[in-house]
Amino acid sequence: MNNVIEVEHLKKTYGSFTAVDDVSFHVEEGEVFGLLGPNGAGKTTSIECIQALRHSFTGDVSVLGLDPRKDARELRKYIGSQLQESALPNRMKVWEALDLFASFAPNALDWELLLKQWGLAEKRNSSFGGLSGGQQQRLFIALALVNDPKIVFLDEMTQGLDPAARRVAWDLVRAVRDKGKTVVMVTHFMDEAENLCDRLAIVNKGRIVATDSPQGLINSYATQIKVLFSTDEPDLSYLEQIPSVNSVNRYGSHVEILGTGPILPLVAAALVENGITPSDLRVDQPTLEDVFLILTRDVEPAEINQ
Ligand SMILES: Nc1ncnc2c1ncn2[C@@H]1O[C@H](COP(=O)(O)OP(=O)(O)OP(=O)(O)O)[C@@H](O)[C@H]1O
Ligand SMILES: [Mg+2]
User: Fold this and answer.
1) DSSP string for the chain
2) Best of 36, 44, 190 to mutate for ligand 1, by most ligand atoms within 8 A of CB?
3) pLDDT in tens, 175-210
4) What is the mean pLDDT of residues 13-33?
5) Residue bearing the CA closest to ligand 1, atom 8
6) Which of 14, 16, 48, 155 is the pocket-test mutation for ligand 1 (most atoms within 8 Å of CB)?
7) I want to staple 161 with a disulfide (CB 3.0 to 4.6 A). Which of 43, 83, 165, 170 is the partner?
8) Would you list the domain boundaries of the chain?
9) What's the confidence (pLDDT) of residue 107?
10) What is the CATH T-level fold of the domain 3-213, as seen in this structure?
11) How far is the CA of 186 from the centre of ligand 2 (A)?
12) Mean pLDDT of the chain
């Protein structure tokens, strides 16, 4: 595999505050790589350094063999950026923005097609200020793609998009990837990360705490199975005696049991033995959200697994 991005010991400070602290990762050509982490974790700062939008950082960063600090102008030809905070002049028309961005690019795509793909054809002559938040967001994604980039950076691409538009955006990102492009995306949506990203880095407090495929992360970190059911029976202490059960939590009549291994038959047998036959007994498999919560809590993962 060819690494199109290599980041070694990236560190970025704002005054005395360290926003990105010794971050290292690589991105392979043709993959969708995601950065997932809580607010303020340093995701935007990290990808801004990589995109040559911030220059005062330490560490080694190579993007398509270029150094963003030295080769910013050259690099811009090959990357597309949708920024978390963007703005255009309110009076600029949608078509003017695309035409302007295309005019900077030697291999610009047909922006009329991008307009259609991103559901903006009817808004061609609308001014930027007259677009809804979601339409503005779609325009920024289209603008990030107009120079036919080798790598496209998407920072919270689907923020503000309605559910249908999110699905369309996912399909379009997959289409971009299928054309051999590399996508680096920041997202807060677990379903988006799970559906779109080939690999993910979980970022917390300026550091990468884990990198793997979504399923790999789930297998490594979210090892607890959840068994759920409802009952009004007050005493369920016997469930805590089952060896592979770690905790029994009650939320009103809802009961949530956390454990490792195949606890469902053991829980079911113990309930039947004690005269309870819950009709809604079910198992929830661990999800990426569980991984996220485990890895971004204020305690070390090792402490949680104990
Ligand atoms: N220009 C700046 N000056 C000072 N501090 C900054 C600046 N930009 C970001 N920070 C701080 O750096 C930290 C990381 O910010 P960053 O925007 O990278 O986080 P993020 O992971 O993208 O968060 P979010 O999910 O909220 O977008 C935050 O604590 C933020 O307050
Ligand atoms: Mg951000």
Assistant:
1) --EEEEEEEEEEEETTEEEEEEEEEEEETT-EEEEE--TTSSHHHHHHHHTTS----EEEEEETTB-TTT-HHHHHTTEEEE-SS----TT-BHHHHHHHHHHT-TT---HHHHHHHTT-GGGTTSBGGGS-HHHHHHHHHHHHHTT--SEEEEESTTTT--HHHHHHHHHHHHHHHHTT-EEEEEES-HHHHHHH-SEEEEEETTEEEEEE-HHHHHHHH---EEEEEE---S--GGGGGSTTEEEEEEETTEEEEEESSS-HHHHHHHHHHTT---TT-EEE---HHHHHHHHHSSS-HHHHT-
2) 44
3) 899 989 999 999 999 999 999 999 999 999 999 999
4) 97
5) 45
6) 14
7) 165
8) 3-213, 224-285
9) 87
10) Rossmann fold (3.40.50)
11) 7
12) 92
Segment 263-281 shows an average pLDDT of 92
Identical fold for domains 3-213 and 224-285, yes or no, is no
pLDDT attached to residue 251: 92
Q: Please work out whether the CB of residue 34 comes within 6 Å of at least one atom of ligand 1.
A: no
Categorize the per-residue pLDDT at 133 as very low, low, confident or very high, splitting at 50, 70 and 90: confident
Query: Which CATH code of 3.30.70, 2.60.40, 3.30.420, 3.30.230 fits the domain covering 224-285?
Result: 3.30.70
How close is the Cα of 42 to the center of ligand 1, in Å?
6
Q: What is the band of 262 on the pLDDT scale with cuts at 50, 70, 90?
A: confident
Return the pLDDT at 84. 80
Relative to the CA of 156, which ligand 1 atom is closest?
27
User: What's the pLDDT score for residue 306?
Assistant: 44
CA–centroid distance, residue 102 to ligand 1 (Å): 30
